Model the fold of this input.
Amino acid sequence: MPADAQLAIDLLKELRALTSDEHGAQRVAWTPMWLKARAWFQQKLNTLPIQHHLDAAGNSWTTLRGESPRTLILGSHLDSVPNGGWLDGALGVVAAFTVITRISAEFHGRPPITIRLVDWADEEGARFGRSLFGSSAFAGTQSIEQDRGRTDAAGTRMEDAVAACGVSIEAIGEARRERQEAAAYLELHIEQGPVLEKLGLPLGVVLGTKGVERHAITFNGQEAHSGSTPMKTRRDALAAAAKLALAVRPIAMQHPDAVSTVGSLKTYPGIVTAVVGRCEVALDQRDLDPAILGSMYAEAQEKSRQFAEEEGCTVEWSRIWNIAPVPFHPELIQLCEQAINETAGQSHRLPSGPLHDAAEVSRAGIPTVMMFVQSLRGISHNRIEDTREDHLRLAVDAFDRLASKTIAWIAARP
Ligand SMILES: [Zn+2]
Done:
């Protein structure tokens, strides 16, 4: 008896009708609409023989007790960005609901191991700029001191907004208690990119989340009059920066899955009658392999020094943010691949560029894998975000199979 894939689709549509407007989904964490989505979901869960509680970070836990306390966790997030799509996060939560419903029925409310469903709090960080809020507290990588002073666009402090939802920011680290007995974590998510659609495949197994190196790079030259300064004597900071912006692309293209983006460039004084004296560039490089990420970073630095010298400038680097790649568990990757092959005939292995709650769970040392379903046009965080319904059905079927395989895998482990 498989999980009810049509029920998952019906529930996603019900949630969309309840929590979207003409601009898209509005389930921003720590807002009334988010609480409404959670209350709606709670009503669905109440049909099962389960226990429910919120942890210290606002993560919503539903537990179906099994013969063994060892636990399989299934989850994702109900929160969305403003004007978001109907599937990002919600698909994973609703699919987990249909799977836990199937498991409960199959084992008459008492499966061989314990199954838990988690709806992580504030995955998106849309309101306060702090992504993976709940899962990082679970993993013990939370950053209360930086988060305390965050404010939203209206000036509301994060500390106050979470308190209004029953969460004390001082105490969120206690969410790590939920790690007890956790033996594996599975998450189904839309790809949010174009890879599977290009390959004509509905489903893929995620190898891990890419590491990120994000840097501010400043070229310093000489401000000078654009009429009177001969070309040969210029120290044009923009010329050096422009060379770098182009050079980071072939650096990434040497590797199949690496990406490299100059997403921002500011010139000073920024007027048409002056040679640019200072140029600030923001660079974001990503790959799943730490060695590749490290070499891309080193190569970009070397190129920046070369271009600075060519243009008579100096260059300085300062790190904005970085995170190491998070590889998922090799045996769970295999199980996920099997589940996809059995359901859709063919699978594909791919890394995730975006970070996910699964990365935090994996960083906490819990065996983890994610499954991706194709996104139409590769578009997400937008109301036109979509996936074919036959692909959604395949995704729920394959995720259900993966859950069964993982239960057997946990039960067989010493
Ligand atoms: Zn998401």
